[in-house]
Design goal:
Chain lengths: 402, 199
C-alpha cells in the first residue's frame, strides 16, 4: 500500500457502504469511508421519545418552511417535525425532472444515510424471483440463483438482526435466520385467520423486520417506543450507526471522513482502474484527492450514477462505465397503492407498546405457472391500530357528550 | 397467541421499564424546547377570552382538566400566527367576528357576558347547523374551533398524560391486552406526521 493512501475507499455510509466498510476492515484492509454529509451520533436523535407538546408545532411541523425547503422530502411518511434534521433540503439541492414522469428522490445526506430513516422490512427473495426473467422472457436471465445468495442472506440476517415469523415458508419469501417475530395484534390476527380460512395459499404474517427482539452485538432488543425514524439510542433497529460502523471501527482499520462530496473518480487508462477519488469539502469547498487499490461506490442508486456521469475522461467521455449510454436511464420508482378500512368490534382489546414492524402478505399470484392475467405479482404490507382521539374531529357534537 | 413478552430477555444491554422512564425523563430535560414566540399578535386579549370560552365548551373541565387548563387558547394563537396560511387566517378571523357579532345581535350582549346556558345554546345551534348541512366552501369558525381544541388538547401534556394514557417506551409489547370501559385510551400516533385541516 506504499503508493496508496488506503487499501480501499468506500464512498457512502448508508446500508451498503456501511456493510462494505465492515467486511473490508474485518478482512484486514485499511479503509477510508467517505460521507458527503455531516457526522451523526446517537446524541443527534433529538426527536427520540419526545412528546408532542415539546415540539413547536405539536408534530404538525412548520408547513410553510417545509413547502419552501422540503417539498419532495416531506412527501415521505417518515418525514416530520421529530425527524426533519435527517433529510436533505430540496431547496439547497434541487434536481430537474420530467413533469410527466416525476421521481421522488428521498435523500439523507449524513453519516448512516437513509439507514437511519428506512422502513426496516427485510424479506428474502425466493428461488422463483431469481428465475422469472428466464421463465417469462422479460429481462436477461441472471447468472445467479437463490442458492448462490442464500449464504449471504444468512450472513447479513445474523449480523443485522432480523425478527420474523418462522412458520410459513413462502416461495417468494423463504424463512431466514430470524430472531423471534413480534406478535400480531388482535385485529391483525382476526384478519389473518379470516384470510387463511378463505384462501389457504395466502398468509398474513408479521413482516420480517430489521428490529431486534433479542440482544445482539451490544444492541438491546426493541423497547417499543414506535417511530424508529427518529433514531434509536439503544440501537435496536439496524442502521449503519447502530451496527456496521461500530464493527468496522472496532477493527482499528477504519478512517471516516465526513462532509466530503465526491466530485469524480479518476480513471487510469494504463491500469484500466480507478486511480483516485476527488472530493470537495461541503463546508470549506477545499478540494482533495484520495487513492486506494480498490474503490467501492455505495452512494445510493442515483448518487452513484451521478458520480459515474461526472467522472469523464478520454476513455469515458460520457461518464465512467457508460460506453453503452444506458447509465442513468430506465430508472423505476417503487410503485405502491394505499388502501385503508375500518373493522368494527374488538373494543375490549388494545396494545401495550408501539410495535415498529408491520404485517405483510407475501406475493401469491403466478406461483405455479401463469395463473393471473398479469405478469409476476405483488405483496401487501399492512398494520392495524385502534381508533383514537383523532376521530373526535369528525364526530358530531361537543362537550362532555363528545 | 404467542406474545413477544414471553420471548423478551433482559440481557446485558436491555433496559427495563423503569430505566426507560428515567432515560426518557433525561431526554426531556436535556432537550431545549423552542418557545412559541408569536411573530405578531394576531388576537386581542378579548378575542383570546372568546376563544378560551368556546374551547372550554368543546372540552369542558370534568374530573380531568378541560381546554383552558390545557392551554388551548395559546395553541390556537400559535397556530393562527405561525401555521395557518393567510387565507385560512382570514377565514378564521372573519368567522370569529361573525360569531361575536351574532351573539351581540341575538342577545344584545357580548358572547363573554352571556349566561352559561345562553353560551351553550348559541354555540350548539351554530355547530349543529355547520355539522348537519352540506360542507361549506370555507370551514365555519365553530368547526375550526372544534378541530383546534381537540388537537390542542390531546397533544398537550395535560390531555396526553391525564385524560389519555401515554406510552413512551414500554420495553414489552402486549398485542392483545384487555381494555375495560373506563380505561384511559392511548395518546398514540407515535408516527412522525400528524394531520390537521385548517382550510
Amino acid at each position: 500500500m506504499s503508493q496508496h493512501d488506503f487499501d480501499a475507499i468506500v464512498i457512502g455510509s448508508g446500508i451498503s457502504g456501511g456493510w462494505a466498510a465492515k467486511e473490508l476492515t474485518e478482512k484486514g484492509l485499511k479503509v477510508l469511508l467517505l460521507e458527503r454529509g455531516r457526522s451523526i451520533t446517537p446524541a443527534d436523535y433529538v426527536g427520540e421519545h419526545k412528546p408532542a407538546w415539546q415540539f413547536p408545532f405539536r408534530q404538525l411541523g412548520d408547513r410553510t418552511r417545509y413547502a419552501r425547503d422540503y417539498p419532495i422530502q416531506s412527501t415521505c411518511y417518515a418525514f416530520g417535525e421529530p425527524t426533519e434534521q435527517f433529510w436533505a433540503k430540496d431547496s439547497e439541492q434541487p434536481y430537474g425532472q420530467d413533469p410527466a414522469h416525476p421521481f421522488r428522490w428521498i435523500r439523507g445526506n449524513h453519516l448512516g444515510g437513509k439507514s437511519l430513516m428506512w422502513g426496516r422490512t427485510t424479506p428474502r427473495w425466493g428461488p422463483i424471483n431469481f428465475e422469472e426473467n428466464k421463465r417469462d422472457g422479460h429481462g436477461v436471465d441472471w447468472p445467479i440463483r437463490y442458492d448462490d445468495i442464500r449464504p449471504w442472506y444468512d450472513h447479513v440476517e445474523e449480523f443485522i438482526g432480523v425478527s420474523g415469523q418462522t412458520e410459513f415458508d413462502s416461495p417468494f419469501a423463504p424463512v431466514g435466520r430470524f430472531q423471534p417475530g413480534m406478535a400480531m395484534n388482535a385485529c391483525e390476527t382476526f384478519v389473518a385467520d379470516s384470510i387463511r380460512k378463505k384462501f389457504p395459499d395466502r398468509r398474513l404474517t408479521i413482516a420480517p423486520s430489521a428490529v431486534l427482539t433479542r440482544p445482539l452485538h451490544g444492541r438491546a432488543p426493541c423497547h417499543y417506543c414506535g417511530p424508529c425514524e427518529r433514531g434509536c439510542s439503544t440501537g435496536s433497529y439496524f442502521s449503519s450507526i447502530s451496527s456496521t460502523l461500530p464493527a468496522a471501527k472496532a477493527t482499528g482499520n477504519l478512517t471516516i471522513v465526513t462532509d466530503s462530496v465526491v466530485a469524480g473518480l479518476d480513471y487510469d487508462p494504463k491500469t484500466r482502474k480507478v486511480s483516485g477519488v476527488r472530493v470537495v469539502d461541503q463546508n470549506t469547498r477545499a478540494g482533495r484527492r484520495y487513492t486506494a487499490r480498490i474503490v467501492f461506490l455505495n452512494a445510493s442508486t442515483l448518487a452513484s450514477t451521478q458520480i459515474l456521469l461526472n467522472s469523464t475522461s478520454e476513455s469515458f467521455p460520457n461518464g465512467l462505465g457508460n460506453r453503452s449510454g444506458v447509465l442513468g436511464h430506465y430508472l423505476m420508482d417503487h410503485p405502491y397503492l394505499t388502501v385503508s378500512g375500518v373493522i368494527p368490534g374488538l373494543l375490549d382489546k388494545y396494545t401495550i407498546g408501539n410495535r415498529p414492524a408491520g404485517v405483510w402478505m407475501p406475493r401469491f399470484h403466478n406461483v405455479d405457472g401463469q395463473t393471473a392475467p398479469f405478469l409476476r405479482g405483488f405483496s401487501y404490507e399492512a398494520s392495524a391500530s385502534r381508533a383514537n382521539w383523532t376521530d373526535g374531529v369528525s364526530m358530531p357534537g361537543y362537550g362532555a357528550a363528545l | 397467541m404467542k406474545h413477544v413478552s414471553e420471548s423478551f430477555e433482559p440481557g446485558r444491554n436491555s433496559l427495563d421499564r423503569r430505566a426507560f422512564v428515567q432515560l426518557a425523563a433525561t431526554f426531556g430535560l436535556s432537550l431545549s424546547v423552542p418557545g412559541f414566540a408569536a411573530k405578531s399578535p394576531t388576537l386581542t386579549a378579548d378575542e383570546l377570552t372568546l376563544i378560551g370560552e368556546v374551547s372550554e365548551l368543546i372540552i369542558p373541565t370534568t374530573d380531568t382538566g378541560g381546554a383552558l387548563s390545557a392551554g388551548v387558547p395559546g395553541f390556537v394563537k400559535m397556530m393562527l400566527a405561525d401555521w395557518f396560511s393567510a387565507a385560512e387566517r382570514e377565514n378564521f378571523i372573519s368567522g370569529m367576528n361573525e360569531f361575536a357579532a351574532g351573539a351581540l345581535k341575538k342577545h344584545g350582549k357580548k358572547f363573554q357576558e352571556l349566561t352559561a346556558s345562553q353560551k351553550d345554546q348559541y354555540f350548539s345551534e351554530l355547530l349543529t347547523t355547520a355539522e348537519g348541512g352540506a360542507p361549506a366552501p370555507r370551514t365555519p369558525f365553530v368547526v375550526l374551533m372544534k378541530r383546534l381544541t381537540i388537537f390542542g388538547y390531546y397533544t398537550s401534556e395535560l390531555g396526553a398524560t391525564t385524560e389519555l394514557r401515554q406510552q413512551v417506551a414500554t420495553a414489552q409489547y402486549e398485542p392483545a391486552a384487555t381494555f375495560k370501559p373506563g380505561d384511559r385510551a392511548d395518546s398514540g400516533i407515535p408516527g412522525a406526521m400528524y394531520w390537521f385541516n385548517a382550510s
